[in-house]
Amino acid sequence: VVERADKRRPRKSDVLIGTGPWIKELYDRVAMVAATDVTIAIFGESGTGKELVARTIHNSSPRHDAPFVVVNCAAIPETLIEDELFGHVRGSFTDATRDREGLLQAAHTGTLFLDEIGELPLALQAKLLRVLQSQEFRRIGDDQDRRVDVRIITATNRDLDQLVARGSFRQDLYYRINVFPMHLPPLRDRPEDIALLVQHFINKLRGKLGKTITGIAPEALARFSSYEFPGNVRELENKVHQAMVMASEELIREEDVALPAGGASMRIDVERPFRVLKQAAIDHFELRYLTELLRVHHGNLTRAAKAAGIDRKNLWALVERHGLDRGRFKKLP
């Protein structure tokens, strides 16, 4: 739930993985905001990498050697979260036998990352607002204010506008945390990133598993690419991990992949823009088509382009955009 003091520098496993305009825009926004102390709100579904973005901002900021403290507001019971965040003084309640430093104080000079901010109780929203306004807070049972030097980054998978309209989230706090919003797309809107992410997780996990897995067979990759992953990147990593446990060769095979037959539900989400849904469907088709095309022609672009009836240069551009490694297809029988 929390990391009281994480002072490490960025690792390779912390790199944000993706292709296309969205990842460039994200890195541009990280670079734009990292050197400042502006409050950031990260929006995205569960599993899209909100904590990773927050950590990247922290590690790229002047505060990188100070603590990065993570608080999951949804994981701490409402009766405990005030004590967890702000701390208490001895004697403030029955079990308070000594002073206790809260996580806000633990993040002093660093970054406090409040995940699932939409779950924070209304009473604590007022105390957080005061911290954002004056950098001051008061421990439970204390009669003295304390000052703290901390940058606050928040994240949520909820629609805060709706919560504000329902009266369960303070409008003034919403304005304070939403100074610099960042939006992360779900994995189903960027299927072209699946091949890159799968290879990234293979490189990350094989040492822990003690295996010499080097990659994934095209048929297995096609299985991953045909699934929508409602749990997003977190679910993809979990499924790659499972497949690596099952794998007995250097490549993950189709039989190693445990996914529901036929992929996830393909219900049309009319809340999402037509253009976005259409592009996701096109990307999904292109990746499956190219994978099968290269498998049949053993990675030979000239033969594949002729069979597909498209220019070889255009085919090469599509293969590159979807992150497909032609070398793997040449090794297939």
Give a structural overview.
The protein is α/β, with parallel strands linked by helices and 333 residues long. The model is unreliable at 1-13 (pLDDT under 50). The protein starts with 20 loop residues before the first helix and ends with a helix. It folds into two domains: 12-185, Rossmann fold (3-Layer(aba) Sandwich); 188-330, Helicase, Ruva Protein, domain 3 (Orthogonal Bundle), CATH 1.10.8. The strands form four sheets. It has a five-stranded parallel beta sheet with strand order 2-5-8-1-9. The chain has helices at 21-34, 50-59, 78-86, 103-106, 122-134, 160-166, 171-177, 194-209, 218-225, 232-246, 274-296, 301-308, 312-321, 326-330, and strands at residues 40-43, 68-72, 87-88, 100-101, 111-115, 136-137, 146-147, 151-156, 180-183, 215-216, 251-252. Helices cover 45% and strands 11% of the residues. The chain contains 14 helices and eleven strands. Helix 5 packs across helix 7 (171-177) and helix 8 crosses helix 10. A hairpin with an 8-residue loop joins strand 6 (136-137) and strand 7 (146-147).
